[in-house]
Amino acid sequence: MTAGVIRPMIGRDSRFFWEGTQVGELRIQKCNACGAKRFPPGPACQSCEAYDRGYDVAAGTGTVFSYVVHRYPPVPGKELPIVIALVDLDEGVRMVGEVVDVSDDEIEVGMRLRVDWNRIDDELTLPIWRKA
Amino acid sequence: MSLYRKAAIAGIGATEFSKESGRSELQLSVEAVRHALADCGLTAADVDGFTTFTMDTSSEIAVARELGCGELRFFSRINYGGGAACATVQQAAMAVATGVADCVVAYRGFNERSESRFGQVSLAAATQVNTNGLDNAWSYPMGLGTPAATVAMQATRYMHEYGATSEDFGRVAVADRRHAATNPNAFFYGKPITLEDHQASRMIVDPLHLLDCCQESDGAVALVIVSAERARDLAQKPAYISAAAQGSGVDQYVMTSYYRDDIGIPEMGVVGRELWRQSGLGPDDMQMAILYDHFTPYVLMQLEELGFCGRGEAPGFIADGAIELGGKLPINTHGGQLGEAYIHGMNGIAEGVRQIRNTSVNPVPNVEHVLVTAGTGVPTSGIVLSV
Ligand SMILES: [Zn+2]
């Protein structure tokens, strides 16, 4: 049930992330000047103002900071209900992620998750999260 | 220089609020503006400025053409959805206070139920070619794609941090619907709910029930803003603008400010501090408030950010009918956007004006100051209206 999924807008500042998901890497932007990590990515370091940036590949593990169970209305390309979490990665950044194989009454703040991949097609792979 | 009491809302107007207006969004706005001008005894010839939401589909010049206005000297738009509501009044107030324009109309009109429904997943929001679209890449593809879902994410965390419950959110819906029940212009006129009704309503996005979510509505509202001096010569008692503020927090996003250590809505704290600074007033000076209520949890968080109570204390603050008529801080006496209609916050500003004029169907006794806020979870705005 992934046909017709909403595709991300991808720009120069975020392309590295989506290239990473294609090869099974959860890439977190890292400043080449000061080492600060950030998500979501952007062109200018919020710590030292540098534009020179690379990335680290995250371990792919994290903890549920918050979550929702989306029951209505329909979401393109998804089967309802959808469990969606804010995941605090062990690297210190936070991201929104769809949680699969965790039921709506099992999900809770503090649950440990690990990343996995939902290959949509040749051009898009979405990160998803499973119980660690 | 300050904006304090330099300008006033002199006229208010609206169409009926419905689920299918049967006419264009442009026509709705034109009708609302005509009503607002007639309300204060002005005509289209007096208008030399317009301001609206970036999201509005009717341009200032299109509205001016239909009204038969003359030349315009001022036109502006504010971004970020419902966060624009009170900022349109701020734009107008700044324009008339500085003499940039003499008579500015703020308007918002849409068929938000019968045409473009805001409660659905918006592909347009996810694919807009700008940084907002790029920001939405981190939520929509993951399935987080409705306003309700983005708010629910904040609500879960708020419940976890402070022990708030779904019943606490439900008390906002009960208050709104009680007030709508006696407002003939409200969609839910004559239809109050109980907390049990709220709890029994179906889940939309856990932890939000259906009755935590505002309506989708068709309709338009317009406001006429002139200088305080001019307002005194017009047909209605002026609602003086004691303060008008915008606010954006650190690391701000549109509906998804999730990357701050402590999430929440600090942007409304920015608005509150600025309103109190400009006006010299504080929470204790407000006899009532119109708090933006697209979803109930943000009403609680607003009370905290605006200084009516401490962080995490809103559940206690709103208990025992405190936010209902007769309580210590009645809110949303028109029924709010859950009860009256969802006109992106503009109908709440009109109710604030009616309370200042003492013409609300649910009058609060001895009103001197009314706080009105705009959309939450987004860069937002607020105003203080005074007698
Ligand atoms: Zn840096």
Give the gist of this structure.
The complex is a heterodimer of chains A (132) and B (387). Chain A is mainly beta.
Low-confidence stretches of chain A: none
Name the average pLDDT of chain A: 96
CATH architecture of the largest domain in chain A: Beta Barrel
Q: What is the subunit organization of this protein?
A: heterodimer
Annotated CATH topology of the largest domain in chain A: OB fold (Dihydrolipoamide Acetyltransferase, E2P)
Biggest sheet character of chain A: 5 strands, mixed, barrel
Number of strands of chain A: 8
Poorly predicted regions of chain B are none
How many β-strand runs of chain B?
Answer: 11
Give the strand order, joined by hyphens, for the main sheet of chain A.
Answer: 4-5-6-8-7
Query: What is the CA-atom radius of gyration of chain B, in angstroms?
Result: 19 Å
Distance between the termini of chain A: 23 Å
Largest sheet of chain B: 9 strands, mixed
Written as H for each helix and E for each strand, in order along the chain, the element string of chain A is HEEEEEEEE
What is the CATH top level name of the largest domain in chain A? Answer: Mainly Beta
Number of helices of chain B: 14
Greatest chain-chain contact: A-B, 37 and 39 residues
The CATH superfamily of chain B turns out to be: Thiolase/Chalcone synthase
Beta-strand proportion of chain B: 15-25%
Share in helix of chain A:
under 10%
